[in-house]
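Bumping with the actual sequence this time:
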Amino acid sequence: KLTSEDLSKLSNYAFLNGNKIVYSFKNTKSELMEKGDLKIPGLHNVENALASLAVCKIIGINDKDIKEGLS
């Protein structure tokens, strides 16, 4: 179950590093994909993808499935 504390920290879990979508979770920092690999354009969609990535990591979805869902 996500808590309000989890939700307030989402930007700490997933972020852009240059053109890369990156997450940092449970002492692991990993590049998931290129920003340009997202299915839909627009900065607001990048922000939505970052929030989705953060929630997916919190609830235990693996990188392959997250990447497939976003690209």
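The tokens above came from a reply further down the thread. The mean pLDDT is 88.
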